[in-house]
Design a protein that fits this description.
The protein is α+β, with helices and mostly antiparallel strands. Helix content is 34%, strand content 25%. The chain contains eight helices and nine strands. A hairpin with a 6-residue loop joins β2 and β3. The longest helix is centred in the first third of the chain and has 14 residues, at 33-46. The radius of gyration is 20 Å and the shape is globular.
Length: 237
């Protein structure tokens, strides 16, 4: 009966899983902006097959905050279907909003779509290999660059891309929007523990990129020297 209960009710519905999307989809036209904004979060986490069409409706909401939240939620699904839906929205919402949402995705289809929508983007697809050249799945991969954060903090690493997780074949895809000097970019790899008592490992390797181009990367963990060896090839241009 009171708006202060809306969040509690939404949380309860979220716990129902995929059924929440079907039950809540009529609220895309609710008069309250707050309700529609909360709906975005619930639908994103519902795991429902109805999540994409429901979020697509919210991407066209009259409130810009709801719109942008829905675009980000669509990107958070990180699937080929979500990438296709974002591309379909490119002529209905501000183009740069779609570009920024696609840039947070790491699904290969999203990276390919972004190349078509924003040729100025810097993209790459790659494979991560173990010492024996076998693919390394479930590792975290990200592009970073070293920056000066002032006299107190000094130099440190800052992410310039989303963080991807390698698939069963060790493949990954990443995007950089903007960037000043990508010739100084580095590839950061973090392995996830595969069993109890095993620590994660982090490796860095220089990975010079050509701004606005598409690249193929082969990265291999060299455990004997405790390093990451990365080779990059500019595919286009």
């Amino acid at each position: 009966p009171a708006y202060r209960n809306v969040t509690v009710v939404f949380s309860a519905l979220e716990s129902t899983g995929p059924a929440a999307a079907a039950a809540l989809s009529p609220l895309t036209e609710h008069d309250s902006v707050s309700v529609r904004r909360l709906l975005v979060d619930v639908i994103e986490r519902s795991g429902s097959s109805e999540a994409i069409p429901t979020l697509a409706a919210l991407c066209l909401d009259g409130d810009s905050d709801v719109q942008r939240s829905a675009l980000d939620a669509m990107a958070g699904l990180d699937s080929a279907e979500a990438a296709a839906q974002l591309m379909a929205l490119a002529n209905q919402v501000p183009r740069m909003w779609v570009v920024r949402s696609l840039a947070t995705m790491t699904h290969p289809e999203a990276v390919g779509s972004l190349r078509a929508l924003a040729p100025e983007a810097t993209t790459l697809r790659g494979v991560l290999l173990e010492d024996n050249r076998q693919p390394l799945p479930r590792a975290l991969v990200q592009l970073v660059e070293e920056r000066y954060f002032g006299d107190e903090s000094g130099w440190g690493w800052q992410a310039i891309s989303a963080r991807a997780k390698t698939d069963a074949e060790g493949t990954f895809a990443l995007t950089v929007i903007g960037g000043d000097d990508l010739a100084q970019a580095h590839l950061k790899v973090t392995t996830l523990p595969h069993q109890a008592g095993v620590d994660s490992e982090t490796f860095l390797a220089e990975l010079p990129l050509a701004k606005g181009r598409f690249h193929y990367v082969e990265a291999r963990i060299d455990r004997f020297f405790g390093r990451l060896v990365a080779q990059v090839e500019q595919v286009d241009g």
